[in-house]
Amino acid sequence: MTEPTDPETGTQAHQTIRRRAATPPDQRPVSDALLKRITRYSGTLSTEAVRALEQELPFFAELSADQRAEIQLIIQSAVRDFVTWMRNPEAQHTDTIAGFKLLPKGLGQGLTLQQTVQLVRSTLEYFELVMPRITHNERQRGLMIAAVLKFGRELGFTAASVYAAAAENRGAWDTRMEAMIVDAVVRGDRHADLTSGASALNWDPTTAATVIIGTPCDEIGLESVAAVHNAAINSGRHALAVVQGSRLVVILSGELESSVTIPAAVLEAFSPGSPIVHGHTVSSLVDAPDSAAEALSGAAAVGGWPGAPRPVAAMDLLPERVLGGDRGAAATLVERVVTPLRGADSSVEDTLRAYLDSGGHVEKCARELYVHPNTVRYRLKRVSQITAYDPLNARDAFVLRIALVLGKFDERRSQENQIVT
Fold it and tell me: Range with the lowest mean pLDDT among 34-38, 183-187, 330-334?
C-alpha cells in the first residue's frame, strides 16, 4: 500500500509532516500571500519606523545619517525575520538583535542594552500599529496583533541572550586583562602598557596604589578575586587582583597611611591566620612594581617573625628581609638608622651599641661608659627621636642591632675601597 501524497506538493505525506510539523498550513495566522505582501512593504515599513523612532527616542537624534540608515536596514531585516518566523516559529532571528548590538555609535561603541531594548520596543509598537492595516479582515488583524506581540517577546529573549553572552565574553576578557596587568606589576615589567589596560578596567592610572600579598581564602578559592573587588568598591576604592597558585596578589587604589587602613573586607579574602604583607604606597600604577617588589620580599621573609602583625608592612620586616638576602632592604635599613645616627653626636651611637651589648641594662651600660644612668636614658631617647626605633622595645632593639651590624659592614667596605684607591 503506497503512502498518501501531499495535495500541494505531490510529495509523500510522511516527508511533508517531518518538514512542516512545526507550522501546519491550517494553523498559520495569515496566508502566504499576505506574508509576501508584508515582505514587499518591508522597505516602506522600515522607513516609516525610523521616522517614528526619531520622534520617540532622544538618543536617536545623536546618531549620524549613516547610522540611522543602518538602523533602517536592520528594521527591514526585522520585517523579513517576522515573516520567516510567521512561516516557522522555530526559525532563528538573532540577526536583528546582532545588528542592533554591533551598530557603531560615537567612537566605535555599540548601542547599550537599554538603547537596544528601546529601539526594539518602539519598532514593535510601530509594527503593532501599522501591520494590522495590511491585513484583509478583522480575524487576520487580531491574529496579526497577537503574532507581533509574540514575536516581540521572542525577540526580547533573544536580545537578553545575545547581551548575556556578550557580558560573559567581556567578563572573560576583563579577567585576562586584569591578570596580565597584575602579573606585569609582580614581574617588575615597566615596559608593559599598564596605563591603557588599567583604564579599560575603570582604574584611574594616576591614583595611588599599594600591592598586598597573602594566601587566598581556601573556602572561596578563585572567588577571592571577586570578593576583593566588592570589598574595594564598598570602601570607595578600586582593586586589581589575581590568584597566582597559592598566592593572592591585590593592587589597591588610594593612599594607605598604615596597615590598619586596609579595608577589613579586603583582608577577609585572604586565608584566616595566614600572613598578609603590603608594600609602600606609590603615586601611580606605573610605579606599582616598586611596591610589589617590596611586598614580595616581605612575604618571603615574614616567616622569620612569628609575632608579626596581620597585615604587616614590608618596611617593618627589614631585618628579616636583610637576613633573607634582600640587598635593597639592607640599604634601606642603613639609610634609615645608621646614616642619621652618624649625623648626630657620636656618643649617641656609642651609647646605643653599649646598651645593646649590655643586654639592655641601663645601669650596666652606664658603668661601662662611666656616665650617669640618666645620661644613658637621655641618649637612648635621642636614638628613638632620630631613627623612630625605640631601643627599650625588644623588636625595635632587634632592628637597631641589625642596622648597626650593616653599618659596620659598610664602614669596612668603605675603608677597603680607600686602600685600593
Answer: 34-38
